[in-house]
Design brief:
Structural class: alpha/beta
Helix content: 25-40%
Distance between the termini: 22 Å
Radius of gyration: 21 Å
């Protein structure tokens, strides 16, 4: 089995080589992203392996279909960069629904602690032998209220971490997790109450039409003055321009961003010797109360291993059984009971 692997980074190769060799899968690694200009590199391959910033639109899907490619194996959980509707009847789309919820949740908390305790500033100061504490005052997390939007695997791990700090949790999700709401320190609420009462808000939901720009001018206006926004999910959950306005008006006290709406043009690459052309991103990074990491939350040894193993298992299951438990099925609803079987194709 031959798979074209796009948007390759050095940390991808060891795990995929390890698990691929065990199952007889040969990966051809391409550093370039998958898009309309590079899709022909998939000629002669049985499938492609794509990541979050690859472009899998209608034109790319049609060309892959013409080339005889049967499957797109996403090495990630999100699929908002894939035209799933257009792929129906042409290509099978597989994904990794969970790789390490701890990696992402722990990164979200690391960013929050770094921000409110000024760890990033202290690191820079002490390296210059500046041991002054002026301007370094933070605040306790204990007793504070955190709003968590999205209570899937990652959201629930983040909630557990927050409870360990003695925080109160206001949770929102279309689908409630049974037993999570204890009526006291963790409660499901409507979005308006979450925005109004939370000292900080952490996003752990997928990007859909409903959640697109869930943080915007109107929702920021509902928030407490000084609210901290944390986003380790998808960039377009946050209207970056509205966030910037909220920071400038002092309504938003701090922002911790591991994702950005236009990140595909910048994240995972080195632009240190260039002028950043995205004015909003440049302005956000320049703010003293904003921390930006470049889609790093998933990047742990455990997560990389799990991603590779699950992706390889998905491919083997699909080519051996012509179906896969982790297939995204547009016709029946995403991850339906048909498991991507022929009856839905």
């Amino acid at each position: 089995m031959k798979i074209a692997f796009f948007d390759t980074k050095p940390y991808d190769v060891p795990s995929f080589d390890k698990f691929g060799a065990k199952k007889g899968i040969s990966f051809k690694y391409f550093e370039t992203k998958l898009n309309e200009d590079t899709v022909d590199l998939a000629s002669g391959f049985d499938g492609v392996c794509a990541f979050v910033n690859d472009t899998v639109n209608d034109k790319v899907i049609d060309r892959l279909y013409e080339l005889g490619v049967k499957v797109i194996a996403l090495r990630c959980a999100g699929y908002n960069n894939v035209d799933v509707k257009h792929a129906f009847g042409k290509l099978h789309i597989l994904r990794v629904p969970a790789y390490s919820p701890y990696a992402v949740a722990e990164h979200a908390m690391a960013m929050l602690l770094t921000s409110i305790r000024r760890i990033h500033k202290a690191y820079i100061r002490t390296r210059d032998f500046n041991f002054s504490l002026v301007g370094m005052t933070g605040f306790d997390l204990h007793g504070k209220t955190v709003g968590v939007i999205g209570t899937g695997r990652i959201g629930r791990v983040f909630i557990d971490i927050c409870r360990g700090f003695g925080m109160n949790v206001l949770a929102y999700d279309k689908f409630h997790t049974q037993g999570l709401d204890n009526g006291d320190t963790v409660r499901y609420v409507e979005l308006d109450e979450l925005f109004e009462k939370s000292d900080m808000i952490s996003l752990h939901c997928p990007l859909t039409e409903e959640t697109y720009h869930i943080i915007n001018d109107k929702t920021i206006e509902k928030c407490k003055k000084g609210v901290v926004i944390i986003n380790t999910s998808r960039g377009a959950l946050v209207d970056a321009e509205a966030l910037l306005s909220g920071i400038k008006s002092r309504k938003v006290g701090a922002a911790c961003l591991d994702v950005y709406e236009e990140e595909s043009d910048f994240f995972f690459e080195d632009f240190s010797g260039h002028i950043l052309e995205d004015d909003i991103l440049a302005r956000l990074i320049s703010m003293p109360n904003v921390i930006v990491t470049s889609h790093q939350a998933f990047l742990t040894e455990e997560a990389l291993s799990n991603i590779a193993e699950t992706t390889v298992d998905n491919l083997i299951e699909f080519f051996e059984k012509e179906q896969c438990d982790n297939e995204i099925c547009y016709r029946c609803g995403l991850e339906c009971d048909c498991k991507g079987g022929k009856k839905c194709f």
